[in-house]
């Protein structure tokens, strides 16, 4: 999250990929640039250290500089697929996997929960109906894996969509809380699931933000500006999914958490 998060990924990801023989990396990218949105330059920094594809959430389109990449089918970044028709960008894309001699395409899909913080009053299409439509449309397209990133507030909604898609996609990975949950597992039908994968960035902070910039908001009801924490220990959170190359479902799942 923000530059601290980028630096954490730059420091840790190459060694983690080498250590665990990782073939393909997806990063949730809606908070990359100054904590809100992403610009192409920061996207390039993450690609340079091994990120292959970028999913998104309610801040995906916050910075207009990224809209060209969002609209480009060949650029490996998506915004939520269940935004209303006419929203800039694409909600799912195929991204080529070519690390460690792995060849093929990975389908990346982002979905937005129906309740997401201050954006809870903004209309979005039903995520279950939207994912059904995507999977029907793409059912005959060969691919190595299908990764769904679900960005939302309600744990119940994240758990429901994971089980709804069990056996139909490789993984359903939730985010938005910035705090990892203790429920990473392979569901009965073979889909990897975690309610919230957590964040990359400052550890001693509130969602990457300095405590002193948010405590007055909670204690006194004051308006305050978020100030990103750049000092102290940092955290790296991710989900490792081993994919069955015959079924495209998950063999195993492991939450990765590193503190530096």
Helices and strands, in N-to-C order?
HEHEHEEHEHEEEEHEE
| Shape call | globular
Give the radius of gyration.
Answer: 17 Å
Helix/strand/pairing class, anyone?
alpha/beta
Please report the distance between the alpha carbons of the first and last residues.
15 Å
Q: How many strands appear in the DSSP assignment? A: 11
- Helix percent reads 10-25%
The largest sheet has its strands arranged as 3-4-5-6-8-7
Overview of the molecule:
The chain has 260 residues and is α/β, with parallel strands linked by helices. Helix content is 25%, strand content 23%. The chain has six helices and eleven strands. It has helices at 2-20, 40-48, 67-71, 127-137, 155-164, 211-220; strands spanning 26-28, 53-55, 92-97, 104-112, 145-151, 171-175, 185-186, 192-194, 201-202, 234-243, 250-259. It has a six-stranded mixed β-sheet with strand order 3-4-5-6-8-7, covered by helices on one side. A three-stranded antiparallel β-sheet has the order 9-10-11. β7 and β8 (192-194) form a beta hairpin. The protein is globular, with a radius of gyration of 17 Å. The model has no long low-confidence stretch (mean pLDDT 95).
What features would you highlight for this structure?
alpha/beta, 6 helices, three-stranded antiparallel beta sheet, globular, single chain, six-stranded mixed beta sheet, about 25% strand, about 260 residues
